[in-house]
Write a structure and sequence with these properties.
The protein is mainly alpha-helical and 515 residues long. The chain contains 21 helices and 2 strands. It has one domain. A hairpin with a 3-residue loop joins β1 (74-76) and β2 (80-82).
Amino acid sequence: MNPVSPYLAGLRYVAPEVLLTLVALAALVWDLVLRGRDSRKVGYLTLGGLLATGWLLVQQWRDLGASSTGALGTTVLGMVTIDRFGTFFKLFTVGALLVVTLFVLFDRREKKHGIGEYYFLLLGAAIGIFFMVSTNNLLLLMLGLELLSLASYSLAGFHKGDKRSGEAALKYIVFGGLSAGVMLYGISLLYGLTGTIDLGVMGRGSADGSAVGLAAQFALSPVPIAIAIVLVLAGFAYKVSVVPFHFWTPDVYEGAPTPVTTFLAVASKAAGFAALLRFMGALFLVEGVDAAVAAYADRIGLLLAILAAVTMTLGNLSALRQSNLKRLLAYSSIAHAGYALMGVAVMTSAGFSAAIFYLAAYYLMNLGAFGFLLYFEGVTGSEDVDALKGLGWRYPLVSCAMVVMLVSLTGLPPTVGFYGKLLLFYEGVEAGYAWLVVIAALNSVVSLFYYFRVAKALFLTDVEEKPALAQPVLASVIAVLAVFTIVTGLFNAPLEAWSDAGPASLGIPSATGSR
């Protein structure tokens, strides 16, 4: 048999990654050919490539559902795991990047020439996410994370002449490098203790005795394992802005270009949660994990529950004091990381499904909120909430869409944000974390005050005479996101089914009595 044949067969499973890589290279080369003139053409190429990649991912989702072995995925090329969990988050990433690319194309304050690298870096970040969410191999996970991070550092400092953008990139690099080092050290400890970098083998041990597994190490001493896991979790916590690794978020979000901030708040954060969910599920919750390893999951869950409570509380209280809309949304994203972490802390299949559903809800409402910010940056040239005074009556479509986003971010019906929080609260109570649910509910009340400061500025303050500047394409994108926010809140069964398919494809058994 030709030794190359298995690798060629494996390429069929990673066709979306291959296509995205080719599109990224084409975008880079075309920008060089154009010599930076009319970078819109590179943007349109990016949109076409993302649409084609999305089509391949939809086909992959269907094929995995139809395959007899697709429920638990397939490992190809020795490291990449193709399953519905990874495919869900890849579709999530493609959808987010489509919107972000539109934001770049229709950003009034962004140059239209000499920014072809913008699209190349966005596509490079997406490739990192694709591998990061589709592997049980800690080495490939780290490589995907670093590819995402390097592209994000460059994007944060893309406006080289802007001091705030340079400051954002510098802070991001320093904190990112530190967290990557901490996480890599934790991974090296896990490898040294267990003899493997495969999460599945690490949790269950290997039949041939080549890998020890966590259970044997727990029997000797649980302390080294605990230190290693905490170090790895610290790396994930940095990526998703969980306290106490959140301090980079407000400054980076404020200094980076608004489309980049949108990408960091939506796609990058979701990728961090996807990797965290896979890490926790494959290590502690899948079928066949030793009883001692599964029991340790409760301790990890309690730690995550405490972090969730602190994160959402600090995020919401800090947002109360913000007058800059970007910083307000940055602290809001920290608070929402705390909400999503509730589902992870439950450490059950249903809890993971609730977290995935909430991330999808967060995708819709946060893309709309940052789209609103981008729209009014082009109108007022300011990011302050006070600059919005009276503009709701002048721009009713975009302003009403923003109110829908604010209602969803608060967690009020009939939006998808309400149903997402309802799922998290239900799973929290079922798992015995009623105290955490109470804290989350109180935090939702607190968030109402700063979210509706924006609505008050738009509609309940004096109108200032300013020239109307129409941006029909951007306004339409924001309006569509608002409609989806309501529609998915009222008709949530399809999205819930997609969310449930993720943990099932990881091999996490459904608990009796869960929804």
